[in-house]
Amino acid sequence: MITILAFVVTLGVLIVVHEWGHYRMARACGVKVERFSVGFGRPLLHWQRGETEFVVAAIPLGGYVKMLDEREHDSPAAIAPADLPRAFNRQPLRQRAAIVLAGPVANLVLAVALYAAVAFVGKPETKAVLATPPAASLAERAGLRAGDWVQAVRREGKDEAQPVRSLADLHWHVLRAALAGERLEMDVTQADGRGLRQVVLDLSGIGSRGVDDKLVQTVGVAAPYDEPVLARVLADGPAARAGARDGDRVLSVDGVAIADAQSLLQRVRATPTTGDPVAQRWFIERDGRRVELELTPRIVVGEDGQRRARIEAWIGRGAEKVEVAHGPVESLVVGVQRSWEMAALSLKTLGLMLVGEASLKNLSGPITIADVAGQAARTGVLHYVEFLAFVSLSLGVLNLLPLPVLDGGHLMLYIVEAVRGRPPSDLWLARLQRGGLAVLLLMMSVALYNDVARLFGLS
Fold it and tell me: Phi and psi at residue 201, in whole multiples of 5°?
């Protein structure tokens, strides 16, 4: 229910804001607006305000603002003479362009405002202290280890270091450097802030095709540091039968030292899952004493048919959090900067997908959006607001693409009209619209396929 509600609210807010941009600019330009609709199909609610009918329709997958336009009538005689100067098609080119542009701009402004609001209010975020990097990952080869605290980063060729406020902040820097094919220089200390050293994460070899939603896992900086403590041992599970208790700190497994919760998870997952279960030799610390346990993980078969080892205990106490907040002016700067960078990143990713240098798996459709909306809403209001900002920004960028069925396509046609001195012919308009619709339907099909693949674990 939370997922559905969060998805509906997301669509409602973004559609209203987008169409409100068109509506307000049309009114400012003196154009008569006949209908403001949120959704398509049969009206569920409708009311009149002045000369405009406001509608909430049954299919909430978009909306539209219907303006007076002579091209939608058989003859000018069908329009009251007093209204003719207020027809959209009779407006100067610059005003028509402003009306079309106002929708995407409204979404971009909303994104800036929401990012700025989150930055000003502040929220607890995971500290950029790293877990044990996976074997053979870029992070391990660079020399990162469990408990390293990344305090600042430098992009290749730039002298100025940028502070890293949280793990999410670090992930953002890694993503940008990977897309640019750069090396990322990091100022790293121990978890207590001592022992400053420089570590270089060479992201130049990843390539644009390797930039996807699993990038930080591939690089090896996804997980935060957490202590190798058994926070909760489930009754009658393998850990409980071996004598483990809540609060036990794991020191080693089969002679391999355990640095953090992540390395303990890796040891458990590395347990052979074929044949008879294999007993492991665990050394733990309990009340200042060193205790030896013989623990045999249980092999279970998941819903996906994969066999996995389980000790049936919660591992780790939770990663350390830090409060990240900004002043009013700095928050606005953060909102503008984050929106600009996200927009540039989205456009670059779309361009790379177009030329085959980035994976089409980066496209997401309504199922993924609904799922992420629900997760963000359950995590907290501020996380949901950040998600709303991202989707609003994505909607604004998408609508500016030069496809004739989108706002960006109309703007492209206005540029052609400005250069030629007249609009394209009706024949060419029909061809362009069919082509643009075909491209849009193709993108939607790929996005929906990716959604289904993620839903069933096929990607």
Answer: -100, 105
Q: Identify residue 177 by its one-letter amino acid code.
A: A
19 is catalytic: yes
What are the backbone dihedrals phi and psi of residue 199, each rounded to the nearest 5 degrees, phi first?
Answer: -125, 135
User: Using one digit for the tens of pLDDT, what is the confidence trace for 341-374?
Assistant: 788 777 777 777 776 666 667 667 666 766 777 7
Say how far apart CA 47 and CA 68 lie, in whole Å.
18
> Of these residues, 19, 227, 312, 386, which one is catalytic?
19
Q: Which among 227, 316, 244 has a CA at the least distance from the CA of 280?
A: 244
Ramachandran region, residue 92 (left: φ > 0; alpha: ψ -120 to 50; beta: rest): beta
- Integer Cα distance of 316 and 75 in angstroms: 73
46 pLDDT more than 60:
yes
Which residue do the tokens 């403590």 mark? 229
pLDDT at 162 exceeding the cut of 80: yes
- Asked if the model's pLDDT at residue 204 lies above 90, the reply is no
The two tokens of residue 429 are: 């308009």
Number of Cβ within 10 Å of residue 103's Cβ equals 25
Separation between Cα atoms, residue 82 and residue 32, nearest integer Å? 11
The residue behind tokens 């623990």 is 295
Q: Say how many CA atoms lie within 13 Å of 283 toward its Cβ.
A: 11
- For 32, half-sphere exposure in the C-beta direction (CA atoms, 13 angstrom radius) is 17
